[in-house]
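Question: what's this shape?

___
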Amino acid sequence: MKKEDKKVIIDSLTEAVKAYKHLYVSDISGLNAADTQALRKACFDAGIKLIQVKNTLLEVALKGISEDYSELFDSLKGSSAIMLSDTGNAPAKLIKEFRKKHDKPELKSAYVEECVYVGANQLDTLVSIKSKEELLGDIVLLLQSPMQKLVSALESGKNTICGELKTLEERG
């Protein structure tokens, strides 16, 4: 491969990784054409970008990005494909679901919510990770519950006071 061709690929990979918040490195080798197509379709449907990469070119691309991806470099051996997503747990859920019928893809490593996860044994951990948006939603629900109780108590208290005033007015 010519040096100019490599530079184009590296620049393309760099831009793709920068465009998404989360990066998974997986191994999809060994899938036949139909299974690979099914995986690509599942990725597309889930909003995940799947790219088959050369390890050395990916490593150079990752070194050109401000985030520190160095912990992922040891997992860049053998065949690699990257899964890029804006939702941290979406690729993990897809991998887990796809593996119910196939033996691949296999998780090598991931960069999710600014943390690095290495090894296939991290898949369940990654599936359970909540996105920042989900965590904010949980916090809002927790804050709303006491507020709803307060409003409810004030509403019932208003009715009680009105009833007492009406009773006093009728007596007087």
In short: Residues 125 and 148 are 34 Å apart (CA to CA). The helical segments are 3-19, 33-45, 55-63, 90-98, 123-128, 132-171.
